[in-house]
Design a protein that fits this description.
Blueprint: E1 6-11, E2 14-18, E3 23-28, E4 35-36, E5 41-45, H1 48-83, H2 89-121, E6 124-126, E7 131-136, E8 143-144, E9 152-157, E10 163-168, H3 171-174
Antiparallel strand pairs: 1-10, 2-9, 3-5, 3-8, 4-7, 5-6, 7-9
Helix pairs in contact: 1-2
């Protein structure tokens, strides 16, 4: 009795390498059939926009820190004057609130700057695993848009000596399939060979 099924031959482990940000592909360091190591740079997006955002956020953080210094000086002055009953309690409360608000603004600006730096770092795309590039979907100069989902730049197969056949076997035949049975299959690239 034989069971016939059709399917595709795939690596056991393959990883889609994508981009979490949008941009223009500036450089590609890997191509179809390239061997890559985990952590190796495989692509570079143009970082100009993200670098400018980092610089802008650095300036805004510096401005927020200056405002915090001024709020601290005003709060200290208000505390001394209030202790000597030279200003109203409302003025002292306002100075304390302004100080708390300035501290919160600095924290917000630090977080925005950190996010901008993360986006800048994401301009460099790294290989997630050791393996071989089995698909390259982009070219230098192409724009990738990561609006709703990460676009796939490469597909990296971990080990091409370990393959699997993703096949559909009919329900009537699957009962006769067991572990350890000998199986033959063919592929389109070698139509006259059985494997």
């Amino acid at each position: 009795q034989s069971v016939t099924a059709t399917g595709t031959l795939n690596p056991v482990v393959n990883v889609q390498v994508g981009s979490q940000i949008s941009g223009i592909i500036q450089k590609l360091n890997a191509d179809f059939n390239s061997k890559v190591k985990a952590g190796e740079i495989v692509a570079q997006l143009d970082p100009a926009t993200y670098l400018a955002t980092v610089h802008q956020n650095e300036g805004e953080l510096a401005s927020a820190k200056a405002s915090l210094q001024l709020a601290q000086i005003n709060a200290d002055r208000a505390a001394k004057l209030f202790k000597e009953s030279l200003i109203a309690k409302a003025d002292f409360d306002t100075a304390a609130a302004n100080l708390a608000q300035a501290e919160a603004t600095v924290k917000i600006r630090e977080a925005v700057l950190e996010r901008a730096r993360v986006d800048l770092a994401r301009c460099t795309i790294y290989a997630p695993i050791d393996g071989i590039v089995i698909s390259r979907n982009v070219d230098v100069g192409q724009t990738v848009a990561a609006s709703m989902s990460a676009p796939t730049l490469f597909v990296v197969a971990k080990d091409l000596t370990q393959m699997q056949i993703d096949a559909n076997v009919s329900e009537a035949d699957v009962g006769g399939v067991e572990d350890g049975q000998t199986v033959t299959f063919s592929v389109d690239a070698f139509p006259y060979r059985s494997f």
